[in-house]
Amino acid sequence: MAIRVLLVDDQPLLRTGFRMILEAEGDLAVVGEAGDGLQAIDQVRALQPDVVLMDIRMPRMDGVEATRQITGPGRDGPAKVLVLTTFDLDEYVVEALRAGASGFLLKDAPAHELVQAIRVVAAGEAMLAPSITRRLLDKYADHLPSGEEPLPDALDTLTEREVEVLKLVARGLSNAEIAADLFVSETTVKTHVGHVLTKLGLRDRVQAAVYAYESGLVRPGAQ
């Protein structure tokens, strides 16, 4: 079954370029396009895509609010949102991740990275490139806890190993990398990640990473 993709961007030329790239792949199918957030919501309802490639800055409704309405609390549809941002990292990307996006990608990323990102997100994983994540969190370091505040009570529900896993997820490590770091199997890591998400009421790894930083468990630049 091909991965169904909806393209959302207010620039028709960009949508055309993305369509050409994606339709050259046998396992990807572009099922529709939208020029703003309102159209995106309607198209998601009508077309039921697997992945929405979502721009941030658009007229009528931006990508953050559209993402919130597509994947926010109470939504159980299949659509995952992959946010597109500029090289300078749009100030709204953090809000899009909080709203339920499964990751973000630079607009000038090579074609093979775009294709791979869509496959990763469609498979239920998160697109958290460590280098981009660190830059993003460093940019907002002043708005994050200083480390002096007490940690949220919810973290007490995690085991010591689950806290370790959460910290590594926040650094952008994949399951395979976490498994190698902790000398356990990938299956064990998946189980730990699942427990973390369930206990903290989080949707996916992206929200887990944001939570780890916002709670003060992890600080930008920390290892």
TrEMBL record:
**Gene source species:** Streptomyces halstedii
Protein name from the UniProt record: Response regulator transcription factor
Annotated Gene3D superfamilies: 3.40.50.2300
Q: Where is the Response regulatory domain?
A: 4-122
| SMART domains the record matches | HTH_LUXR, REC
HTH luxR-type domain residues are 151-216
- One GO molecular-function annotation for this sequence? DNA binding
Q: Which domain of life is it from?
A: Bacteria
Carries keyword Phosphoprotein? yes
For this entry, list what GO says about its biological process.
Answer: phosphorelay signal transduction system; regulation of DNA-templated transcription
* InterPro entries associated with the record: CheY-like_superfamily, NreC/VraR/RcsB-like_REC, Sig_transdc_resp-reg_C-effctor, Sig_transdc_resp-reg_receiver, Tscrpt_reg_LuxR_C, WalR-like
| In-chain residues carrying the UniProt-annotated modification 4-aspartylphosphate | D55
Q: Which UniProt keywords apply?
A: DNA-binding, Phosphoprotein, Transcription, Transcription regulation
